[in-house]
Amino acid sequence: MKIGIAGSGGIGYASAAWLAHGGHEVRIWSPRNDSAAALRDAPLQCEGVLQAQVTVRVAPTAAALVDGADVLIVAVPVNGHKAVMDALLPHLASGQTVIVSSVASLSALYLFEQARARGVDITVAGMGTTALTARRSGPAQVKVMTRRTELGVSTLPLSRADAAMETVRSLFGDVFVPEANCLASTLVNINPVAHGPLALFNWTRIERAENWPQYHYMTPTVARVIEQLDAERKALAAAFGLQVRSIEAHFAKSFGTTSATLADIAAELHAKRGGPPGPTDTGTRFLAEDVPFGLVFNLALGACAGVAMPATRSIVEMACLVTGRDYAAENDLVAPLRIDGATPQALLARVNAR
């Protein structure tokens, strides 16, 4: 297939390498800068779980990326989803499939409804997280650390779920399971409930750019706060008739942990892996992305469904206090999605569109 990838960070490069190695024709576009420029003159070199050297074309514009593509992949941080989608929308054509990797703040629903409003009939597949984990190691180099062994995917419209599943499996392998809808894909992500408290309670380490292993500093106290946020996330999902697995079950599924409590899981992971290192930049995505597009969005959903979320609200307020930023104002999807004032029934009707 002809694949267009919006995003030239680690996930964009990893996806490009994986798909080009699989025989697909891949183009990549850098939305904010020309960070994929090296690929114009050099092959993309991949190490890690995929050892390959592949040719990837560079698209100069969003229009060039979309033109003739069978599948498009949005592979940018969640705080860039709306801007990238707005750039792609004028050029999308009916029949194309767009994979959102990974969906947050119902960004898949935003893209789908905006395309429909333009009379464009696309299929949107939303992944709960990325199919691959990776880091760019150079201008034309990427290291792929893992490929997920199981990953949920939701589809808009629901009537094309089977076709979307066939597409993602043909691209990344038979590791995908269907999610109920894109709201489930949004709520299944445990990163916001874990990253917010972890960053805030280790903030001086981040400010001092210390080398701190994340799981070692997910102490029993920090774990207890994370568990409270996770309980509110699960209650929120239940209010919409959805069931999402706990953060403990997530770690067991992702990393094969056997401990029962989150604090013990963190100790187990530290003993096994020793890392990964925690962030050392005060602009870390642990707050800049996960608070506005995870926790703030959850609060908006909570208000919609009448679910009290005091622990989540406390972490959001603390994050704003510590950083001096208004994270509620930084979410650019709540307003256009008309979450405020919506009813659970109305929102479910939209995410279950056929």
Overall outline: globular
Task: Give the neighbour order of strands across the main sheet.
Answer: 5-2-1-6-7-8-11-12
Q: What is the overall pLDDT average? A: 96
Q: Domain count, please report it.
A: 2
The count of strands amounts to 12
Q: Kindly report how far apart the N and C termini lie.
A: 25 Å
Outline the low-pLDDT stretches: none
Text of the CATH class of the largest domain: Alpha Beta
CATH-scheme architecture of the largest domain: 3-Layer(aba) Sandwich
Which structural class matches the secondary elements? alpha/beta
CATH homologous superfamily (4th level) name of the largest domain: NAD(P)-binding Rossmann-like Domain
Rg over alpha carbons: 20 Å
Largest sheet: 8 strands, mixed
Helical content (DSSP H or I, runs of 4+): 40-55%
CATH topology of the largest domain: Rossmann fold
Percentage of residues in DSSP E strands: 15-25%
Number of helices: 16
The H/E string reads: EHEEEEHEHEHEEEEHEHHHHHHHHHHH
Provide an overview of this structure.
There is one protein chain. This protein has helices at residues 10-21, 62-66, 81-88, 107-117, 161-172, 182-187, 191-200, 203-207, 220-239, 247-255, 262-273, 285-288, 291-305, 310-323, 327-330, 344-351, and strands at residues 2-6, 25-29, 44-48, 52-54, 57-58, 71-74, 97-101, 123-127, 132-138, 141-147, 151-156, 176-178. With 354 residues, it is an alpha/beta fold. It has two domains: 2-178, Rossmann fold, CATH 3.40.50; 191-351, N-(1-d-carboxylethyl)-l-norvaline Dehydrogenase, domain 2, CATH 1.10.1040.10. Strands 5-2-1-6-7-8-11-12 form an eight-stranded mixed sheet, with helices on both faces. A four-stranded mixed sheet has the order 4-3-10-9, with helices on one face. Strand 11 (151-156), helix 5 and strand 12 (176-178) form a beta-alpha-beta unit. It is globular, with a radius of gyration of 20 Å. The model has no long low-confidence stretch (mean pLDDT 96).
